[in-house]
Amino acid sequence: MKNMKIILPIVIGILCVGLLLVSCEKQRITELETQLSSKEDQVKQLESQLAHLQGSNASLLDRLSDLSVVNKAGSESIQRSLESMTQQYSFIQDLSTKIQSKDSLNLALVMNIKRSLVDINDDDVQVEVKGGMVHVSISDKLLYASGSSDISKEAFGVLEKLATIMNDHDDLNVLVEGHTDDVPMANECVADNWDLSVKRATSVVRLLQSQYYVAPERLTAAGRAEFIPKTQNTTAQGRSKNRRTEIIITPKLDQFFKLMEAPLLSN
């Protein structure tokens, strides 16, 4: 009995300690479970952030790919533009060289014509460059009798000298234009100023071909009547200046258009 009194407190103490330990362990388990739940929530948040970052990264890669395509296309466009500019610059340089050459030829023609006509009165023959072409303006009093399209003997020498220069430059065409003043002309030979200006131009063309052997395919005859005057027709002197025949030496049109033809440019 005495032993039971000794053992019972010991057993009760052991049970109390066990219960205390069990209670502490349950509390520890509860804390661990709470921590685990919190960690699981953090993992879910991290997984969500990772998925978002992966999506953003894929989007950035797609945009980078697009930018690469755009940059490549832009680079190709710039390259084509540079090639086009190079072609244009080369064309402009070539055109400038040809224009300078043409201007030099015109200057040489003017000097040759003036030297050959040095004995002719300047009032009767004028030589100048207009619009890139050589104009030789011959007064009607030197070329024709009044109201007539028949060429005077005095004019033969002038036309012969001009024809010699024309034949020396067979790569050039010759346009002959007849001009009148504004006084109406009509008689049994001509119907009006149009008719007179055309017949005068035709007379010069015919003489250049038949007498001085200028190739007819290089010649053109045109009548301008009174509609392109050099000055006003209000005085006798003005009307005299307007009555003229102009011989215009021009580049052949096919060569001229070829000269002005731009190269095909890159798109």
Radius of gyration: 52 Å
Q: How is the biggest beta sheet arranged?
A: 5 strands, mixed
So how many helices? 6
**Helix-strand pattern:** HEEHHEHEHEH
Number of strands: 5
Summarize the amount of helix as a percent range: 55-70%
By CATH's scheme, which homologous superfamily of one domain applies? OmpA-like domain
Could you please describe the fold and organization of this structure?
The chain is of the alpha+beta class and 267 residues long. It has helices at residues 2-116, 140-143, 153-168, 193-210, 236-242, 253-260, and strands spanning 125-130, 133-139, 172-179, 219-223, 244-251. It has a five-stranded mixed beta sheet with strand order 1-2-5-3-4. A hairpin with a 2-residue loop joins strand 1 (125-130) and strand 2 (133-139). The N and C termini lie far apart (119 Å).
Keywords for this structure?
single chain, 13% strand, 267 residues, five-stranded mixed beta sheet, 60s Ribosomal Protein L30, Chain: A, alpha+beta
Q: Quick recap of the structure?
A:
This protein has six helices and five strands.
